[in-house]
Amino acid sequence: MSTARRPFLKMNGLGNDFVVWDARDVPLTLPVEQIASLGDRNTGIGFDQMITVERSGVGADAFMRIHNRDGSQVDACGNATRCVGRLLMEENGLEAATIETRAGLLHAFRTGAPQTITVDMGKPRLAWDQIPLAEEFHDTRAIELQIGPIDAPCLHTPAAVSMGNPHAIFWVKDVEAYDLGTIGPLLEHHPVFPEGANISLAHVFAPNEIRVKVWERGAGVTRACGTAACAVAVAAARDRKAGRTSTIHLPGGALTIEWREKDDHVLMTGLTEIEFEGEVDLDTLTWEKTQAGDASIAGAAE
């Protein structure tokens, strides 16, 4: 096999999809332009995030590096953590895995079926300077921000939460009533979010049942976003729109989110899927599928 050819796994968590590289033995660093080309759904492999699994410097099972489709690097991705956690558990024959990220150590464990993985996302960050916001807000359950005319805004007063990355949650009656592809990038880059933000539209349609649509920072409209699901669940509990355990319904499927009272940690549970193994020629960016179905990260690296 040419040294320019690298194996990868294509995975998803509820349709939130990833290309996963094993770079623990052979490091891999791609320029932004290559990441964006590979992430293009028309001309490349297509993904929401690119995940590079590296050796941990602090004794965790692995370090997980996360790049968005546009090549920007981010600190956290809940669904990717669940996917990588599954791979590491399968590789090691264990029921739990610890993953180092730029947002800190995250702990994944199996809960039921092999494809169902829970990840402890840690504590939400709720103070304005932790999210972060560009100006001080005493109460981040509803910050001063609106889209549309001052006297009749179409969206206004979102909740703000950080789950290792910043989120803004707008409570609406119908998540499909808005063109998130148009307003998402405007809100992502609003000056109140110095690091940008993930934008969610959320509707509580039954007790502890919340429908959500997400514009993901650096990736666009996505079928699922784990940290957004966590942020929405926390915002709903803070505003007494739901209890501390809720089901978040995303276009790709449902996640169960528990904001645990004893330690304020957020637990996220849902399905993962290995779609196929593939191989990329890094000189030409051409790629091919090499095997369908259920493989481990170790198998993909052989």
UniProtKB/TrEMBL annotation:
Give the multimer and partner information: Homodimer.
- Gene3D superfamilies, per this entry? Diaminopimelate Epimerase, Chain A, domain 1 (3.10.310.10)
Show the GO cellular component annotation of the record: cytosol
**Top EC class, one word:** isomerase
- Residues annotated as site: Could be important to modulate the pK values of the two catalytic cysteine residues: H167, E216
What species does this protein belong to? Roseibium aquae
Name of the protein: Diaminopimelate epimerase
Q: What are the alphabetically sorted keywords of the record?
A: Amino-acid biosynthesis, Cytoplasm, Isomerase, Lysine biosynthesis
A single MF term (Gene Ontology): diaminopimelate epimerase activity
Per UniProt, substrate binds at: N16, Q49, N68, G78, N79, N165, N198, E216, R217, G226, T227
**HAMAP family found in the cross-reference section:** DAP_epimerase (MF_00197)
Any idea of its EC number? Answer: 5.1.1.7
Subcellular location(s) per record: Cytoplasm
Principal cellular location given in the protein's record: cytoplasm
